[in-house]
Amino acid sequence: MEKQKLRILQVHNAYQIPGGEDVVVANEKKLLEMYGNEVITYSRNNTEINEMNAVQKLLIPFSAVYSFKTYREVKKIIRENHIDVVHVHNTLMMVSPSVFYAAFDCKVPVVQTLHNFRMLCPAGSYFRGDRICEECSEKGLQCSLKYGCYRNSKAQTFVSAAILKIHRMLGTYRKVNFICLTEFNKEKLSKLNKGAKKIIDMDKVYIKPNFTFQETAPEEPHTELDYFLFVGRVEALKGIDVVVKAFEKLPDQRLIVAGDGPMMDEMKTYIREHHIQNIEFAGYLNKTQVQEKYRGARAVIMASQCYEAFAMTIAEAYSNAVPVIAGNVGNLAKMVEDNKTGIKFVYDSPDDLADKIRTYNQMDIGKMKQNAKAFYEKRLRPEDNYRILEDIYHKIIGNK
């Protein structure tokens, strides 16, 4: 029997620099509306900070913990639109966890998708300096203050840590339903309950991966797959230096880097000083341009130096029948089936990446392209994702 269509309030706080979360939120709204649901959006943006006066900026640490503006506005939307479920994505910094209290007071179930690891790590990435770091999970949030983990700022890290600490103490998170993108992420989240006090209710934690809409393939597909492709921000977190140093050892293999970021100048200087001729920095590409690059790639290289909450690049590669060469770490290791949809390497080793690329070139790439597409068809299609999300909504509505 077809389930009742719902009125969903989608809540999202955009960062000052747009990122993958914004794409996921937009995709999910489009998907819900495709199936006849009504989606009302409440969005705020951290660029609001730029318009504030000095006094307002001083109050940010307090409003980030609890925003009366968000509370009033969300409560009004819920009541006027007879909202069935509130779906929260990001709350940092302007929305704040006050959105949960607006839902609680209106007796409407609320669920948050966890797009990163910020429930356990104020930086959200489990990454510090040049390595994976889980000190805040193991020793407490005060570790982040010592290092200034969030945006290399002790002041901003204090705010991020304070939000977590205060709402853990208040029991806010025990009342919220959560969506984790993978089993790996759910297992990490469960570490919040290691003490005597239960921070979250694991019975209210669900798993739903991200998805990607499959783009229409061109009439004339590429027949020569003559390059490897890196898609992402040009920064240490994404392992761009690992990839560049690997291709330095492979002068006969071509690499295209699609993306921009803080290490762009450093990497361009590196390849110039080392006389590297086989790496092309294409810069930022729009969606159509990136799709074109996917279709001509032998494989996509994923060298993230962190766990990655969910690797959208892998989902996009698979939707285009492109295998992936990925670091054997975190969720990357879970999304790549070794010698089937791609091949895995020691995530922080340029030498091993170079070796694995040589190995990959001896494999049946045609068969691996078929496997990559099959992975997408089995796990990452939007229609299947909708059924999972629909079931979650109706379950939490029934449990309210």
Write up this protein.
The protein has two domains: 7-211 and 381-398, Glycogen Phosphorylase B (Rossmann fold, 3-Layer(aba) Sandwich); 227-379, Rossmann fold, CATH 3.40.50.2000. Helices cover 42% and strands 16% of the residues. It is built from 17 helices and 14 strands. Strands 2-1-3-4-7-8 form a six-stranded parallel β-sheet, with helices on both faces. A six-stranded parallel β-sheet has the order 11-10-9-12-13-14, sandwiched between helices. A two-stranded antiparallel ribbon has the order 5-6. α10 (240-248) links the parallel β9 and β10 (255-258). The chain is globular, with a radius of gyration of 22 Å.
Q: What structural class is derived from the secondary structure elements?
A: alpha/beta
Average of per-residue pLDDT values: 93
Number of helices: 17
Rg over CA atoms: 22 Å
* CATH level-1 class of the largest domain: Alpha Beta
| Count of DSSP strands | 14
Q: Tell me the helix content.
A: 40-55%
Low-confidence stretches: none
* Overall structural domain count: 2
The CATH architecture name of the largest domain reads 3-Layer(aba) Sandwich
Order of strands side by side in the largest beta sheet? 2-1-3-4-7-8
Overall geometric form: globular
Q: Report the CATH topology name of the largest domain.
A: Rossmann fold
N→C terminal distance: 22 Å
Strand content: 15-25%
